[in-house]
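Recap quiz, item 2
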Amino acid sequence: MSWIREGELTIIERFCANIIKAGPMPKHVAFIMDGNRRYAQKCHVERQQGHSQGFDKLAQTLRWCLNLGIREVTVYAFSIENFKRSKEEVDGLMDLARQKFSRLLEEQESLKKHGVCIRVLGDLPLLPLDIQELIAQAVLATRNYNNDVSESLLDKCLYTNNSPDPDLLIRTSGEVRLSDFLLWQTSHSCLVFQSVLWPEYSFWNLCEAILRFQMNYSALQKARDSYMEERRRQQMERDQAYVTKKLQQEGFASHGDSRRRRTLLQKCTAMREERIQGFLQALEHKRADFFERLCTVSA
Ligand code: IPE
Ligand code: IPE
Ligand code: MG
């Protein structure tokens, strides 16, 4: 039996979904699924039961997202801080995660047919030492190439680099903090905090969050566009400054020969791209090595 694909929306839900879909829709939604233990306490059930219902709610929410045409969902299922909980609770959560996410991964292929991409992020307990070492090497290597170090390079170095930033981030249970989740990636996302406890999350809660995204859509879009424009402008300024310095070294006056300036500018951009690609490939290899070793150790 499929974990997320069963069940359609009711007629009234479908009707409302169609109305919402007439407006701008978030392409990528991130959830901080919070409030499982308070839910368990409220319903006088075991804590593990609250977590289990939380995972089932995720399955149901993914189905709603699928029906709403939201193709990418990122969920916060466990944080580093959560390791500080009792061993019994951590073990219980890990068992649930193993059980539920392996089912989800089994269904990944068929989900792809629906054009759906599901990303489940878990923080690594520690920044792997060899990644730290690689960053140190990169800092040394780029000491002479300050132009390479930019916000867009940082984007490309993150695990989330294959994915667009979330348009909408939802946290349940009334907590109004991000708890270290996607801090960099949500700087221009619509943040919606809802008081409902995660296991009680409903289709209507999701609609409400999307409506809030739609109400703020043009402001969000404007902020994102001007941020991207500013990034481009800053990069261009840095490149121009580099070229001016080069021209001066070649004995040209500060404006130099305009053809030479253009050529240098093109060369500077191409060489930077090449260095960045080399760095990213090395980073990718380091990560692949690290995960391979991790799998060997835990097998
Ligand atoms: C979120 O619910 C699930 C995880 C952190 C794994 P909590 O377990 O934080 O429940 P509350 O917030 O204490 O109610
Ligand atoms: C937040 O966990 C992360 C998840 C919901 C998975 P907590 O509920 O423990 O968050 P804080 O520590 O209270 O912010
Ligand atoms: Mg919590």
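The mean pLDDT is 86.
The radius of gyration is 23 Å.
End of item.
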